[in-house]
Amino acid sequence: MSIDHDWHEVFAEPKYRKVISSWPPIVLVYFLDAQVWYTLFSTICGGVIGMFDQLGEITDVEKLKLRFQSLPGAFNTYLVPSNNPRTKGFSLSKSFAKITADQKSETEKFSRLWNEIICAFREEDLISNREMDLLVVPYPIDPTLNIIQWPLFLLTGKIYAAMRNVNSVLTDEAESQERDSEIWRLICRDECTKCAVIEFYELAKRVLRALMVTENEKRIFTIFIDEIERNISENTLLANIKGITFYALAFKFRELLEILKNGGPSDLVALFIEEIILIVTSGVMRNENRELEEKFSGQRNAGRLFVGTGVGFAGKQWENQLKRLYLLLEENASNEVPKNVEARRRITFLMNSLFMKLPQPPVVRQMLSFSVLTPYDNEETVYAGNEVDMKNEDGVSILFYLQKIYPDEWTNCKERLQVERNEEIWNNKNHIEEVCHWASLRGQTLYRTGIQEVTNMKFTYVVACQNYGSHKRDGDRRASDILNMMVKNPSLRVAYIDEVLKGEGAYAEKVYYSVLVKGVGNVEQEIFRIKLPGPLKIGEGKPENQNLGIIYTRGEALQAIDMNQDNYLEEALKMRNLLEEFKEDHGVCPPTILGVREHIFTESISSLAWFMSVQDRNFVTIVQRVLARLLKVRFHYGHPDVFDKIFHITRGGISKASRGINLSEDIYAGFNSTLRNGNITHHEYIQVAKGRNVGLKQIYLYEAKVSCGSGEQTMSRDIYRLAASFNFFRTLSCYFSTVGFYFNSMMAVIAIYVYLYSNLFGFLLWTERGNRGMPQLLSVKPPRSGSELQGDNLVNILGTQFFIQIGLLVLVPTLMEIGVESGFVKAFFEIITMQLQLGDLFFLFSLGTKAHHFWHTIFHGGSRYRGTTRGFVICHETFSENYRMYARSHFVKGMEILLMLVYFGFAAPDFNKVVSSSLFILVASWLYTPFLFNPLGFSWNKIVEDWEDWRKWLYSPVNLDLSEATSWKVWWNGEQWHLRRITACGRIIRIILALRFFAIQYGFAKLVTKDKKIVAYGLSWLCFAALLIITTVQRIERKHSNFQLMFKLLNFFMHIGYLVILSYFISHFGLTARDICVTVCAFISALWAILQISRACKPWLKRLRMWKTVVSLALFWDLLMGSFIFLPLAILAWFPFISVFQSRLLYNAAYSRGLQMQNVIDGSEKDD
To answer: Of 516, 532, 673, 819, which has the maximum CB count within 10 A?
Structure first.
């Protein structure tokens, strides 16, 4: 007997369904489209502004060589004070007069500055000794030469080019004098070739004359030179020449120079001089000079020619001249000089910046005085020897990692230390110290930040190190490192908090002092001591630290430099120009904050670091141009901006330190300045290097902090006051450039939920009315009537969202920015490379991070500071670490969307394929990006270790000494912190939002045939009841360990009973595999809904003593979701080529430079 069950119409058609389902999509489309149009507008305008600023005029070393002769004029105009003001005006190009031979004083100024920069490169090991010889300009200037001595990287190969010109001219049948004139015209066509030929000739004469010892030798040499110069003056040199002789002469002379450089024996030197004279007399002079021939032949036959020649070239000047002559005769010595990518970038940026619009620098006594402030907490100061050589769990040390990331710089370091093998370093204390400094200069350390700032600059540098006093008391190595830095750098000051215990026993109290110290001799000397009313750190740590140090800064301007930043010497030379911007006309109000461009120096470490640097580069360049110069809504987004100190210190300072609301403390300085009629500008002719997070965990924590800070900004008074004081258009500009970006990121994610749940409810309504087929909401066909318009609106949402999803907000600005500065061909290839390295997955993951934490802050509040490490990511993150980091922000949301896509896959096979494909990409990103960009993420050995660690983490008991990293229960309890302060209204909203999972459960139950609907629905609840009983029994079992046999039997019979019941349902009701799959999905939906509701009802469940049952269900949920994510990883790890592919994906930039990254990934250290 069959029984038909008629269900109550839960989703009957409501009265205003059409209105409600039509308007949300329209609102969402407005928000998302506005963000897209703002991105396109800012990209185009920022690119045009960059072009008019002459950005990208010099993009590589080849273009630098072409314009190098104008560089002395640019140096002397913008880096050397002058009483002749340069005329101002707009021009599509900028040029400087080339320095001529009679302007040697101008060349001397340029030479000193240029050589200091090149020497700084060598001290940083960016170039080798040979490259330094090729890049420096001879100094002091040789007064005997009537030419400019250019760097050798411009001149090498020019001698051979001149010889090729000689050979080409000798083939002509013209008169000899015409040939001489022609060849000199060809040589003079290139200024570098002309200078190379003249300099080589003059220096060669000088060297050969110095080798002549006896009077007879000197007389022969004088006749020899006089004969050559006579032919040159009479334009008859080609009439008495054999072209091939020049090549032989150059070859012999280069061999002679090599002997002289190495201090060869005098008889060998004499032999080479005789061969050179013989080549010249027999080949160069067809009409031989009789006197020279007789003397040369007679002395040579007597065996007395050049016998007494010595190699006595003493002094640095002779050594440099021999080296310069030797390199002049190299044909391809300047190819790819400098080889180091960072050195090439810095040289080209320096030269390009000097062709931009800069204020002229004043003399030092007239420049604005300024200070630099750096907040320091507990970061690394200088790496110690045991730290750089200490191996992690994967067998990789920091030094080994840096050797593979920067192999050319490590080779240069060993050359500077004069060691050949790595083992030799550890036998010398000075070498160990130098290696520690070398590693520190490539990390985000205080040593890198401070040491670069005080080089050759006269100003005050204050490091606000609030923990320096505690470090000294505890004997921390960082205290001695800071003291060493103060001793080596007299301009460095350190401000810290000194805690002094006064009184005894019950009357003892702790007194706090703010202290400023400097280094004198080998000890610190106290300068100021100020008693404080109480402890300093009552708000956010970083702004409190800045407020500690700002009172000790001096001068009219203040530059804020962070721990992860670095100011190069060549950029520091432009500080006078930048400070002059305070005196320039920038509109109605004078500037109060000077924005400075940043360069991300960590971009080459890994693919993740590159993706992060792309985001940052777009923001600090193309976006800042538009905000500062077009929209006038640029604020302070962090260091290294320069503040008008007098303006800000009298208006609240540069940092807001209120806990929570000022989580993003930097931007409030910009808000404060703008609200008080300040003017914030942005300048791109000067840049400061900045280190960014290089691991996914670091990036996640940073973006979570910024997103939470943006959520707090949304609720701050400052944003309200700005909106109230701006006009409509400036208010929109402020919105899209601050909180609007994060709000629209949240809207992009909400659009997905609106689309999916609108389709879900639409399908349920469609089926409740007894319709068949597919409703318009799910159809891919265009709407045929106004009543079906909501379907088109929903598709429009996902169309716009898909453009945001594939990285439009990142890729379009990247294309424009790289195109302006490096060329659009390079920009196109970088975009393609980014796609091949799965950059879209990273940007999708980043979108989820921003949306989750912004929503979490708006809904719950209570944002907190998330500290991010600044070290090198050279180790594998365990599965449990990744799970607890991303479970709530990404994994749960990815599982929910996947569940919906499975539902539509069963319910509507013709569901929009484009939309579903984009959502599957989103799901893959949110579920597997942490493992895809995790070193050794697909190594089988690591997979096995991760599984054991995962199980241990799940079932660890709660003890006082356990942390979130070692116990699931501690972590899960910590995940409930935001619910402690939630109001009753908030709990009701959470419960209402959780009901959507019951709708999914109901929808899955309706996918089976009509006679099985109640069976599938009931079976999903039966599964939940079985889970509830099993978890309860297991919880009781852990408390009563003396009854193990009884509980084993009970568990056995329970599982047998469940299998029997399930078998009965399958056989009696004819459930297919599809029906079982649908039932499992319905059960998962119901389980998560109950967990969400239970978390909102925690106070009442605790009173009913049911909370422990909820905890057991949550443990099963995390086990289920973690296993689902882990299974594909384990399957892929079976195939070794997957791990190789992942390594190439993660370190493609390093592989493209030929680095041996596989050794780093595998943890195999081998000395090369």
So the answer is: 673
Collect all residues with Cβ–Cβ distance below 8 Å to 1015 and sequence separation of at least 6: 1008, 1065, 1069, 1071
Q: Are 383 and 439 in contact (CB under 8 A)?
A: yes
Residues 674-692: tens digit of each pLDDT = 999 999 999 999 999 888 8
Tokens 């010497």 belong to 569
Q: Give 651-664 as a DSSP string.
A: TT-S----TTTTSS
pLDDT in tens, 1102-1159: 888 888 888 888 999 999 999 999 999 999 999 888 888 888 788 765 554 545 555 5
C-alpha–C-alpha distance, residues 932 and 1101, integer Å: 39
DSSP element (H, E) containing 48: helix 17-52
Q: How many angstroms separate the CA atoms of 221 and 296, rounded?
A: 10
Query: Which tokens sit at 816?
Result: 């424009």
Q: Which of 498, 447, 437 is nearest to 472 (CA)?
A: 498
Helix axes 1073-1096, 996-1005, angle to 10 degrees: 160
- Quote the pLDDT of residue 845: 92
Q: Which of 541, 522, 528, 521 is nearest to 494 (CA)?
A: 528
* CA-to-CA dists, residue 624 to 64, 644, 705, angstroms: 27, 19, 21
pLDDT top residue among 1149 and 226: 226
Dihedral, CA atoms, 1137, 1139, 1143, 1146, nearest 10 degrees? 120
**Residue 473: per-residue pLDDT:** 86
Mean pLDDT of 414-440: 85
Which residues partner with 510 through β-bridges? 501
CA distance 413 to 275: 40
Respond yes or no on whether the N-terminal peptide bond of residue 140 is cis (omega within 30° of 0).
yes
Collapsing DSSP to helix, strand or coil, 595 comes out as strand
Which distant-in-sequence residues (6+ apart) come within 8 Å of 201 by Cβ?
Answer: none
pLDDT tens digit sequence for 337-391: 888 888 999 999 999 998 888 898 888 888 888 888 888 887 788 888 777 887 7
Q: CB-based contacts of 579: which residues, under 8 Å, 6+ apart?
A: 367, 368, 370, 557, 594, 642
User: In sequence order, which ranges of 425-540 are alpha helices (DSSP H)?
Assistant: 429-440, 446-453, 468-474, 477-488
* Entry field: residues in the chain: 1168
Tell me the domain boundaries of the chain: 199-331, 373-564, 983-1096
Summarize pLDDT for 775-798 with one digit per residue, the tens.
Answer: 555 544 444 444 444 455 555 556
- d(CA 592, CA 819) in angstroms, rounded, equals 32
Q: Mark 660-681 as b/e (b = at least 16 C-beta within 10 Å).
A: bbbbbbbbbbbbbbbeeebbbb
What secondary structure letter does DSSP report for 362? P
What distance in Å separates the CA atoms of residue 967 and residue 958, rounded to the nearest whole number? 7
What are the tokens at 975? 């995940």
Question: Is the peptide bond between 640 and the residue preceding it cis, with omega within 30 degrees of 0?
Answer: yes
pTM given for the model: 0.85
- The confidence score (pLDDT) of residue 851 equals 92
Angle at Cα 898 formed by Cα 1095 and Cα 1091, nearest 5°? 10
Distance CA 257, CA 138 (A): 18
HSE (side-chain half, CA atoms, 13 Å) at 227:
21
What is the pLDDT, as a whole number, of residue 434?
A: 87
The strand pair at 679-690 and 565-566 is best described as antiparallel
Tokens of 418: 């004069």
- Give CA angle at 377 (374, 383), nearest 5°: 90
Output DSSP code: residue 391. Answer: B
Which element (helix H / strand E) includes 507?
none
Alpha carbon distances (Å) from 219 to 209, 211, 212, 223, 305: 10, 13, 9, 6, 12
Cα separation, 1072 vs 1066, in Å, equals 7
The pLDDT confidence band at residue 294, using thresholds 50, 70 and 90, is: low
Q: Are 259 and 273 in contact (CB under 8 A)?
A: no
